[in-house]
Amino acid sequence: MRFHYRPALPDWSSITTWRRLVQFSVVFFIFLIPFLNTLKIHFAKGTFYSLDIGELAMADPIAIFQVMLASTSISAAMLASLAIPLLLMVILGRVWCSWACPYYLISDGIAALRRKLGLPEHNASTMCPSRRANAFRFGFLLAGMVLVGVAGVPVLNLILPPGILSSQALVLVKFGYITFEMALIFALIMIELLRPRFWCRLFCPTGTCLSAFKTQRGIHITLDPTQCTQCGQCQSACPMGLDPRRQGHDPLCHNCGECIDVCRQSSGKSCALFFSMGTQGRRTSSGN
User: Fold this and answer.
1) Beta-carbon neighbour count of residue 82 at 10 Å?
2) Residues in Cβ contact with 168 at an 8 Å cutoff, skipping those fewer than 6 apart
3) Which of 241, 236, 246, 239 is nearest to 273 (CA)?
4) Residue 10's pLDDT is what?
């Protein structure tokens, strides 16, 4: 008896294919940077808390805002490290979360595993409404920042998965072990198996902070109502529990493009959803 295995080829017209390529590239680089540092190559150094590439300095905005609050001071270096992340946020939307965050790649993997196991999908029909989710996560961030101000310590850094994963990659490469910080990641993974996307949707300080800088003029999901068949597949596919037909500007949307891919697959030649920039499509994409 012969067994044949023919792996599926990547669909290069799919946004998800390109997103996955970027995600794995980011994971590769968070291991490559400390490895190069061990070879005395320091063109790039740091973690996702704070990263230097050549003369460019970048940092997680929420990490910098905590330092400002805890130290009650603001420096030019702090402001400069915010420039690139916030500029990208204003122009591209929350692409950091769905395209570059290493924890979101883990979350994607858990969602795929749940589908393989035939577990129930969690989408807009089973998630709390976006208005309530946004109110909760901004409230959680505000409470965290109050705690930072009272304690005088950037305590939210203890629960920032991108920073934890990148710093643990550095520790693993340089010293050959991981620290207790990974306990949070393992705990989140276990909870994600039961409640997918709960962290990204309700708690993540970095994602919530970036959401505050999302603008109507940045890249967002837009609907062409003349092409929409109202099949609802996009709403079922949205990992954030949104209806992309009318919530393209919602702070929860991080431009993953899954709704566009499923729209293209279900409609065939035409696609009612697409990325746009500026005020184009505001009438059809900004409702909540």
Assistant:
1) 19
2) 178, 179, 181, 182, 185
3) 246
4) 62
**What are the tokens at 279?**
């005020």
Rounded Cα gap, residues 263 and 243, in angstroms = 12
What's the whole-model pTM score?
A: 0.90
* Secondary structure element (H or E) that encloses residue 123, with its range: none
Q: In sequence order, what are the beta bridge partners of 59?
A: 50
Phi first, then psi: what are they for 209, rounded to 5°?
Answer: -60, -45
Please provide the CATH number assigned to the domain covering 220-285. 3.30.70
For the chain, domain boundaries: 23-211, 220-285
Distance, CA of 136 to CA of 178 (rounded, Å): 32
Low-confidence ranges of the chain (pLDDT < 50): 1-7, 281-288
Nearest-CA neighbor of 55 among 43, 46, 64? 43
Contacts 24+ apart (CB under 8 A), 126-135: 126/241, 127/197, 127/201, 127/241, 128/241, 130/240, 130/241, 130/242, 130/247, 130/250, 130/252, 130/288, 131/288, 133/201, 133/202, 133/241, 133/252, 134/211, 134/250, 134/251, 134/252
Q: Over the stretch 86-116, which tens digit does the pLDDT of each residue have?
A: 999 999 999 999 999 999 999 999 999 998 9
Give me the pLDDT at residue 128, please. Answer: 84
CA–CA separation, 104 and 123 (whole Å): 16
Residue 45 CA to residue 52 CA, distance in Å, equals: 5
Q: Which two tokens stand for residue 196?
A: 């997918």
CB 94 within 8 A of CB 207: yes
